[in-house]
Structure formats: structure tokens, C-alpha cells
Design brief:
14 helices; globular; eight-stranded mixed beta sheet; about 50% helix; alpha/beta
Length: about 300
């Protein structure tokens, strides 16, 4: 299948490479020429503008947008709306707010364009392991794009699904990320309790390794925690400052709107805010986990590495 890919950050580039390996033809565009050249060397067809990308695609076109949520996505979607033709599809694979996706689907629909929102999880590991994708959009449109999702997923019938109409994909991904906040916070707090019990001189990496096999708390996040602890149990070069990319806040706000108590997710979000005000080992571990699964940058303590 032929696809246009806009945005070649780490995730967009990795998705492009996986699609190329799966036999798809991918036409790419990014404002930065360097990543375009990099994926072109792997077999992608480069373009030097949005208009050039659209012109190189055969109708009905499908264009996957992988740029930051908010204004960058808004700008690209609006530009595509002027360039595409009725029957074409815009796919938003970023972490957009589902309310924005509902609005974009309506606006594009008025032009005869289709909109598919894909909540995507997998981070920097997606190229090798595949991506988990929560897909929102009209069934017939999603069915037409099925080969893309089957190629990007861990297996053709696993790790992805059509969860509902446009907006549903980003809504499900929002809640997914809220749950992720809670899980990460629980691990971080538990390991901090272990660390401060100095009487036992516990080996935190050993404990993480034990829990990885057979334990009821085993998970991929625990695997990544073990990897972070294998490098430096004290996390001495990691600053306990933890960012939040928006989805946790949106999940808490949604819980309030629909009168659903979500104390764990809410508190895990608040703890990220606390991490920006004082030193905390738990916050350091959260930052290290984000670096492990998503390649997110970590802030270094002053005095480390110059």
C-alpha cells in the first residue's frame, strides 16, 4: 500500500522503516532534510513540500501525520485539507486531544475527507517490537488501511484494533497513558521504600530481576525499570524532574467530567508536579523509565559529566 508520512522524528522515522520492511511504498516529508535523506536511503520516496508529497500519491490518498500535538498538528491538518481531494484520508498518529480529533474529523468530513485517529504506543521499541494502536474512524476507511496497521503492529491480529468512530482512538490512548502514570508511580514508590531500608542493603536491580519472572507485578515497565537499575542503582546522573506530555492531565479532567473517581491516576499526575519542586528518588526512577521506553530526555544533576 502507498502512504504519505509527514514528520520524521524518532517515532515517525521508525514507523516508516517498519512499513518499508513490510513492503509498503512510503512517500515522506519533514521540514528537516536530514531525516528525509536517512529514510530515503532505506527506500522511502522523498518530497520537499506538503504539496509535492500529495502530488506524488495516487488517489485515494492516505497521509499519516506524526508531528507534535497541538499547533503543529493543527497546522499540518489544515494545510492538507487545502491540498487533498474528496475520498482522501488524513491519519493522526500523534498524541492529540480526542476533542481536537472530533473537531478535525467534522471539519475534514465537510470537505469529503476522511479522518482516522491512531493512539500509538510503543516508543523507541516499536521498530523492533511493533506498535500498539488504538484506531478511531469509519469502519470502511479503517478496513482500507488495515494492511498498514497489520504491518506496524506486533502481529497482524495482535496489538491493534478499531475501537470506534473518529476521536475514539485518541480517547482510548489518553486513558492508556493515565493508567501508565499510575503504574509507573507505584513502581517508583515501591523501589524508593526498598532503597531507604538501609538495614538490608538491598540490591534493587536483583529485586527487579526476581519480580520480572513469575511475579504478579511483572510487566514491560518492570523490565525497563530493571534495565535502568542495571546501569546505576543510585541514578546519580538523573535529575528527579518528571515531565508530563498532557494525556495524564486530560484523563484526570475527563474523570472529573464524567464523575468517575480516579485517585491513583490523579495522584500520580500530582506527583509529577511535585518532582519539579524537590529532590525525590521516586521521581528520578520515573524519569529513567520514561527514558528507557520512549527515549525521552532526562535532566542531569549539576556537576555530572561537566
Amino acid at each position: 500500500m502507498e502512504l504519505g508520512m509527514i514528520g520524521l522524528g524518532k517515532m515517525g522515522a521508525n514507523m516508516t522503516e517498519r512499513l518499508l520492511k513490510g513492503g509498503h511504498q512510503v512517500i515522506v516529508y519533514d521540514r528537516d532534510a536530514e531525516p528525509v535523506d536517512a529514510v530515503a536511503a532505506l527506500g522511502a520516496s522523498p518530497s520537499d513540500s506538503l504539496e509535492d508529497l500529495v502530488n506524488k500519491l495516487s488517489a485515494p490518498r492516505a497521509v499519516w501525520v506524526m508531528v507534535p500535538a497541538g499547533e503543529p498538528t493543527e497546522g499540518v491538518v489544515n494545510a492538507l485539507a487545502e491540498l487533498l481531494s474528496p475520498g482522501d484520508t488524513v491519519i493522526d498518529g500523534g498524541n492529540s486531544n480526542y476533542k481536537d480529533s472530533l473537531r478535525r474529523a467534522k471539519s475534514l468530513g465537510e470537505r469529503g475527507l476522511h479522518f482516522v485517529d491512531v493512539g500509538t504506543s510503543g516508543g523507541v521499541w516499536g521498530l523492533a517490537e511493533g506498535y500498539s494502536m488504538m484506531v478511531g474512524g469509519a469502519k470502511e476507511v479503517v478496513d482500507r488501511l488495515r494492511s498498514l496497521f497489520e504491518t506496524l503492529a506486533p502481529a497482524p491480529q495482535e496489538g491493534w484494533g478499531h475501537v470506534g468512530p473518529s476521536g475514539a482512538g485518541h480517547f482510548v490512548k489518553m486513558v492508556h497513558n493515565g493508567i501508565e502514570y499510575g503504574l509507573m508511580q507505584a513502581y517508583a514508590e515501591g523501589f524508593e521504600i526498598l532503597k531507604v531500608k538501609e538495614d538490608f542493603d538491598l540490591d534493587l536491580h536483583q529485586i527487579a530481576q526476581i519480580w520480572r519472572y513469575g511475579s504478579v507485578v511483572r510487566s514491560w515497565l518492570l523490565d525497563l525499570t530493571a534495565a535502568a537499575l542495571s546501569e546505576d542503582q543510585d541514578l546519580s546522573d538523573v535529575k528527579g524532574w518528571v515531565a508530563d506530555s498532557g494525556e495524564g492531565r486530560w484523563t484526570v479532567a475527563e474523570a472529573i467530567d464524567v464523575d468517575v473517581p480516579a485517585p491513583v491516576i490523579t495522584m500520580s499526575l500530582l506527583m509529577r508536579l511535585v518532582s519539579r519542586q524537590e529532590k525525590s528518588y521516586a521521581a528520578k526512577l520515573l524519569a529513567a523509565m520514561r527514558n528507557q521506553f520512549g527515549g525521552h530526555a532526562v535532566l542531569k544533576e549539576m556537576g555530572q559529566d561537566g
